[in-house]
Amino acid sequence: MLSDRKKKILCAVVDSYIESATPVASKDIQAEYLPDCSSATIRNELSTLESMGYLIQPHVSAGRIPSEKAFRFYVNELMYENNLSAQEAELIEKYLNRKIGSLEDVMTAITHIIAEITNYTSVVVKEDMSDTITAIKLLDLSNGKLLVVIVTDSRVLKDGMVDLPDDFDEQMIARAQHWLNKIFCGKHVSEFINFDYPFALVNEEFSQYNALFKKIIDVLKKVSLMNGMDVEMYGENQTLAHSEYSKVEDARKFLAQMENKERIAEILTNDGGADGSMTVKIGADENAPEGCAVVTTRVSLGENVSGSIGVIGPVRMNYRKVLAVLDKISDIIIDLVGKGE
């Protein structure tokens, strides 16, 4: 548990570092944030915060920088709400309230305005789950693997494989396929994605294969999601302007991570959030790209079509501004969808 003074000092370090991208010294904190606190006291508190894992001292003579732990505490406990300027709010409304011909145009407009205001990489993931499942086929590959094929009214999805139990024979495969078709055929993929494991619908002779059914359904969810996703991204070059990517090696690493669209889509959508909810992931330990933070919000883009809007940047991100931008955009999208536009 941090004391109020430690919280104020930690908040000052994070705010200053976000602004300057340079290590923060005790005299800077005293001058700009805590004039009533002595420099010696601030130094002692900085040392304690460092020993607690919240701060890092790059060099003996340097000030401190926040750790990923500090940024997490800042987002959860210390950060105050940020209001967009009137000009920023007007710009967002101008982009999104103009006449737009298609959902793809909306996605493009969103990514461009987010990148312009935040100077980070913006991403929109559209999950179209309007397909109706017409058949599920299980194909024995004779190598201990089972290929799961999902047929919908518009696509054939056949990227999923599961391991077969040794005693799972051809007859059992046929029965499993029968039950899966009985459970899922005729349903929209959107229903299927949120469907609980239907163990209660499987008769007792299948109870020993519940684990296999769970694996198959996990594969069905993953394959359906990834095949129903469109990813729009913009602003990678703006992100590279930040000091974290001043070295060519670091810039290349960041761009390589952004090129993996499937991985980015998974990061943005695998948050369990409801529409309008915000999620902040900081660093690789929280499933963000290494050295990055990801802020996302979930929105409905129409019937059976959901979306995730996100911002990717360095851990030293201006979280207050990013959250305010996403909140404003989410409100506009909710209003447009509610009006049927």
The number of domains: 3
Structural class, judged by helices and strands?
A: alpha+beta
Please count the beta strands (DSSP E, at least 2 residues each). Answer: 10
Radius of gyration, in angstroms, nearest whole number: 25 Å
Shape: globular
> How big a fraction of the residues is strand?
15-25%
CATH class of the largest domain: Alpha Beta
Number of helices: 13
CATH topology call of the largest domain:
Beta-Lactamase
Query: Which percent bin holds the helix content?
Result: 40-55%
Question: In short, what is this structure?
Answer:
With 341 residues, this protein is α+β, with helices and mostly antiparallel strands. It is built from 13 helices and ten strands.
Defining traits:
341 residues; alpha+beta; Enolase-like, domain 1; 3 domains; three-stranded antiparallel β-sheet; 10 strands; 47% helix
Describe this structure in words.
It is a single chain. Helix 1 crosses helix 3. The model has no long low-confidence stretch (mean pLDDT 84). A hairpin with a 3-residue loop joins strand 5 (145-152) and strand 6 (156-163). The protein is 47% helix and 19% strand. It folds into three domains: 4-78, Arc Repressor Mutant, subunit A (Orthogonal Bundle), CATH 1.10.10; 86-129 and 230-338, GAF domain (Beta-Lactamase, 2-Layer Sandwich); 133-227, Heat-inducible transcription repressor hrca homolog, domain 3 (Enolase-like, domain 1, 2-Layer Sandwich). The chain contains 13 helices and ten strands. It has a five-stranded antiparallel β-sheet, sandwiched between helices. It has a three-stranded antiparallel β-sheet with strand order 4-5-6. The protein has a two-stranded antiparallel sheet with strand order 1-2.
